[in-house]
Fold this protein.
Amino acid sequence: MHVAIRCLIAFVVLGVGSVGGVGNAMERPPNILFFFVDDMGWQDTSVEFHSKATLLNRDYRTPNMKKLASQGLRFTNAYACSICSPSRVSLMTGQNAARHKVTCWTLRKDTSPARPGKQYSPANWNLNGLQPAGDKTQRSVAEVSLPELLRAGGYRTIHAGKGHFGAQGTPGANPLNLGFDVNIAGSYMGGPGSYHGDHNFSAAWRGGGTIWDVPGLDKYHGQTINLTEAITREAIRAVEKSVADKAPFYLYMSHYAVHAPFEPDRRFLPNYEDSNWNQHKKKYASMIESMDKSLGDLLETIDRLGVAKETIVIFMSDNGSPRNNPRNLPLRGHKISGYEGGNRVPLIVNWPGVTAEGKRNATPVIIEDIFPTILELARLDVPDNDGQSWVPILEGNSPPPEIPRELLWHYPNFYDQPPYSSLRHGDWKLIYWHQNQSFELFNLVTDIGETTNVAQENPDRLRDMATRLDQQLKDKNAQFATIKATGKPIPYPLEALSSRIEN
């Protein structure tokens, strides 16, 4: 970010900035419960986010999600990044992944899980993840984070579950260094060693390394308790203390579920024994139901404590479902993919007394919007960022469809899926595949499954979309892999398109 923006952020954090935004500044700011699920696909729920019910909607049991959706507003065109760490850094900073450059998942310091292609040298992405503002860790982004701004504004900031912000051995590996007052079970890793307390939430039982051990939950070791349940219990205690202390809370309830390893929640697995599903789907369904139970327990807690009407609840997933899980039809693709199955996610928001109950909204929104939305809901100044606040939408004022927004994704890494950049503008989506500099153009209204590439039939639309994508990437100084044969980076979209036309 520019120096001026950094100065503005510092100004707010020091508490000198005025409190503005939503509502009367003299009133108590709302509690905020951000319920964040890992690797949950768009259709991995009994809540309908498509225009009609799907097979998965009928298969899964998520009664608490359904309750939340009946109380609030569900977004049917909500997006995250297609992989975990980029999504988490985007929500913490309000920056698009092309700008913050944490474009793949992080783990070990100075080590990339992404693999170079045979013909390409990898992009110089920020493999060490997010760090506190002022930190000098190389190959990282150092910014004042959302919880730090909230804490400066008087909030009790609670982290529960998966962190995965900064690599092991960096300050950002510990959520307490990123603005959280409380850290429950969060660290550098993106998945747990085990979901079972009798395995000590460790991979040691299957010969795995200690790098996957979930920290801070020793008191549950040896017990027949699921990780999702253990984290929920601790989060409830933190909320109870905050309410007792009369402090507004921001609970970042970031579950490891439903990320691998795919281990069943033993409480719910019997619900699926009579089905003809394979064992993997049964396990996964029990993990989905376990996650939903956690949501229900937290909703019950804020009701029991008498703060439900003062608490805004946001439910979201960090990316699409992995390839080995049941297909999120009608979407194409899966986690990391450039298609809709990689980044379209469930999103529900309940702002008591404000959001219309049980309604749907089709406005396209994206993960970096979390940053300005929560700050505005908290009645705090919003620093410059790439997102757009949803507050007007929550208040019933959706933007006119004739002025569509541009949504950008950038994945320049070689890991599991080929690198790409993509853009949604209105009903249209363009994918630029880096390796062969090719393009796919889809109309998402008529072809949500991205089955038919219509680039050739729509040359003017293709050029318009490529121009928009090009401008977005250049604005954010997006990085690309380097072509070994030439020593030059993969070209920006317009250059690639012009070259294809000339040839």
The longest helix spans residues 279-304.
